Amino acid sequence: MSAVLPAWTILLVSALYVGLLFAVAYTADKLGDRGLSLVNNPYVYTLSIAVYCTAWTFYGSVGLAAEHGLAFLTIYLGPTLMAIVWWVVLRKIVRISKLYRLTSIADFIAARYGKSMLLGGLAAFIALVGTTPYIALQLQAVSSSFDVLLHFPDMEAVQAGSAGLLDDKALYVAVLLALFTILFGTRHIDATERLEGMVVAVAFESVVKLIAFLAVGIFVTFVLFAGPVELFREAAATPAIQELGLLTGLPGGYQSWIAMLALSALAILFLPRQWQVSVVENVNEDHIRTASWLFPLYLLVINLFVLPVTLAGLLFFGDEIPGDDYVLALPLAVDQGLLGLLVYIGGFSAATGMVIVATIAVAIMVSNDIVTPALLRLRRFHARGRHDLSRLIVAIRRLVICVILALGYIYYLLIADTHALVSIGLISFAAVAQFAPAVLLGLFWKGASRRGALAGLVAGFLLWVYTLLLPSLAEAGLLGEQLLRDGPWGVEWLHPYALFGLEGMDPIAHAFFWTMLANLGLLLGVSLFDRQGDMERIQATLFVDVFLRSERDARFWEGTATVGDLQDLLGRFLGPERSAEVIREYGAHRGRPLDEAEQARPELVNHVERLLAGSIGSASARVMVSSIVKGEALSYEGVMEILDATSRAIEYSRQLEEKSRALESATEELRAANERLKELDQLKDEFVSMVSHELRTPLTSIRAFGEILLNNPEMDADQRREFLEVVVRESERLTRLINQVLDLSKIESGSAQWQLEDVDLSRLAREAAESTQQLFADRQTQLHIEVTSDDNAVKGDPDRLMQLIINLLSNASKFTEPGEGQVWLRLEPGRGDTLRLSVTDNGPGISEEDQRRIFDKFHQISQQQAGKPKGSGLGLAICRLIADAHWGTLWVESEPGAGASFVCELPCAGGEHSNVTGYVAFTEHGPTSPGEASA
Amino acid sequence: MTGRRSERLTALALLGVVLFNYPVLSLFAVDGKVLGVPVLYAYFFTVWAGLIAAVARLNRAAARG
After folding, report:
1. Nearest chain A Cα to B14, which residue?
2. Per residue in A557-603, pLDDT tens?
3. CB-based contacts of A264, cutoff 8 Å, min separation 6
4. A752-921 adopts what CATH topology?
5. pTM to 2 decimals?
6. A45, A87, A294: best mutation site toward chain B, by most B Cβ within 10 Å?
7. Domain ranges for chain A
8. What ipTM did this prediction achieve?
9. A327, A317 contact by CB (below 8 A)
10. N or C: at which end does chain A have fewer Cβ atoms within 10 angstroms?
11. Which of B5, B21, B52 sits opposite A293 (nearest CB)?
């Protein structure tokens, strides 16, 4: 069988793909320059974080699963666990990094521990050494996937690979990627400026690799086999697979499981490329919220088919080809060349994405934390020089990119084909895990000191070199084999895989234990007995309390520098135009242009230092600024005093704002209450004047008749009797009036306490009719009672309800013509769950205007036919109050000339008010609702 | 309520650590199948998906608060 695809096709497709990548990045950069940022959304952010899935995921997961079963999952479960707390940890890192323009993990560590150049350099070095094998791994993956695609199924040719340097695909890939990284990774000198093109390209690659892997997974599971269930059944029936115990256990053991889980959880934060995409390229902290579930979901999806593909590979090939090649070999084995090509592109995209981001991340570290500090130490570059260093720094970064890729390529040449993909990846993980104690402890514990971090990092790194890096080189045959057989110089207890006789652990778990023990132990131990310097204490406080304080006004400089000096300094690293612009902007912000010769305010010095930090790292920036500032930096106490004063001021102003808001609303309430009081007061006045008026009428007539009787002692008996009757009648009226006023005020003031009980309204109606019998008899008016409802129970106070009915009845009796008057008292079911009580008469009716005001206090119907007022003007006002207090409504229906009907609807007992027991305090009314008709 | 959200997320992460470690795992590292899928495999993906759903919920709910 010959190769499925010719070499030129594969090369052409690869070249086209890289071309596409350039186009995507270029377009994104152009769009970004025009203000149409593609990276300002949580999905691109999440996809860019998926740069975590490299060729190692793409090919290596299956390889690992073929050996250790489900252990491959740790690499993705660890990050899932870490992603859950991203909101807690990553957000804080992002906030700090943005605030202080920290552009890499090395810079972060340096800044946290007192802007220490030494720590920054060391961290950059560790990142470089730790990342190189990882880059090599990607190059190897690309190269070997190319060979598989070209030569399969001739496995000997695959193993032989390509002969000669010029025939090596990995070299071309490395060169292309160097070009890409230089073009899109070093556009700005300020490393805090976003690399939009690169980020979008990486996000694009994440989509490609996901589609490619899902395609092969679905093809294998559902086309080659009849679905996952069938696949699992076949696998379980195969003795060779059963022996591996892939499905029923964790062949690697729990020790290595835990170590790998922890390592990968740390890697997702501390791998330089992850730091780059998740911290430096973060546009908005809020995106972290989406990423912390969407990214684990991406991992879950891309892992769904790993085990099915592995089992299929085992069933198809067994031991014939390495597990790392299954993904690509399966489609090829059934002559699916195009699918094979898609898989190859997927793996290619996974590898290139990683290499691009890792290279730029490490390049920024190396240039900012190793090369620039070294250059600045040279006399001719020193601060007061006049050269423009910005070009030089960009050139350095480009050179460093080439160097890193070259190192990766050399490492690849050295160890090619000696390791499975996974073990190389884990070696890198273990290296970057050394950052974890310094960063995480430094983030939450102010006591972590520079010397502690230094000791921990050095010890952890050396142990890593000894227990992982050296052995891997030895395995590749670069060091004496004896090292791995008997330990160095035959000293058994120094064996790199069983240090101090610690045997029985796999190399990764073993190294993880020793490095973390030393690193964390020394960081804690040294810190606890250390005395921190001023700068360290300041930085520790700023980092740990980043959410508590406002750092905008933090100042660290007491000394002085002229604006011109600062502008020159900035100009050397950012270019003169940008520098002048910064100073101008700052002046505009302050409200007036700055003069070159004037003394710069401490804030400006601080601002310049931060800007420089973005370009040359925080430690170098500090050195540069201190070289032109005359005088001392502030002490810890001084800085804290300023910070505390600032945050106190902020706190005070916040409290003041709150207070004034509270006062405003209180004022508003008071004003409203006052308005209401005024209204009530006015009503009261009107009421009093009306009452006085009503009282005066009977009083006047009593007094007038009394005087007549007094002055005319000889008046005849009949007349005297007539006059006395008038006096008695008027007195009665006076009494009635006073009683009603008292009633009304009692009800209105809310002091009336009513006994609420279930009352049979029909019984009350009959009783009321009985007690008004005499009234109707006197006026020769007929009263008809009609009860058409069955259940007449309402909740209420019987005396008050009785009063209501009597008032209505007596009201009706007064307005009918003696002799021909008819009054109906009806009780029937009302709207909804109510009882409807109505009193209808055939009197003269009520005009529309009177209907509106009939329930007002002292409203007397004053038509001619009504003649002299017949009531107090309070009866209906009282009725309405009573109805309201029983959650009922009272209104009047009337046509002038056709009688009037007063209707009251009361809720039935057992409804929503049924649970009210005891008494109810009378509820307050709107000022206009109570009223009455005298009528 | 950022503080509350942080606490809940941290607790969720700790739960995840427990569920993905010895000895809980040993309960599921057994022969057998659920709906034709090996028990351990099904366990991992179910718990994994559950954690993701919970994180999504916590981060969303908090967005309103």
Report:
1. A81
2. 666 777 777 787 777 777 777 788 888 888 887 777 777 777 777 77
3. A74, A75, A76, A77, A78, A79, A429
4. Heat Shock Protein 90 (3.30.565)
5. 0.68
6. A87
7. 13-417, 434-551, 554-629, 638-732, 752-921
8. 0.93
9. no
10. N
11. B52
